[in-house]
Amino acid sequence: MAVKERVGLVVSDKMQKTVVVAVENRAPHPKYGKIVVQTRRYKAHDEENQCKVGDRVRIQETRPLSKTKRWQVTEILNAKATT
């Protein structure tokens, strides 16, 4: 079975070794055809606490790491520029 991967935006990094990643899904409404945006939030394991709010990351499904954490950060695609 293939490993599930998602790309999303880090919306919270307040926990230790965990980030919350919001993944957007844009799909047409089945009846009306308007593009509807659905957002799912996943808790992902970030071992080195590298991710910051605003980073675009790729997450991968893994074994259960806690009660709600089932994903891990595999790479940071775009780090948010700090000024």
TrEMBL record:
The keyword Aminoacyl-tRNA synthetase does not apply. GO terms for cellular component: ribosome. The keyword Electron transport does not apply. InterPro entries: NA-bd_OB-fold, Ribosomal_uS17, Ribosomal_uS17_bact/chlr, Ribosomal_uS17_CS. Keywords: Ribonucleoprotein, Ribosomal protein, RNA-binding, rRNA-binding. It comes from the Bacteria. Part of the 30S ribosomal subunit. One of the primary rRNA binding proteins, it binds specifically to the 5'-end of 16S ribosomal RNA. HAMAP family: Ribosomal_uS17_B. Belongs to the universal ribosomal protein uS17 family. This is Small ribosomal subunit protein uS17. It comes from Calothrix parietina FACHB-288.
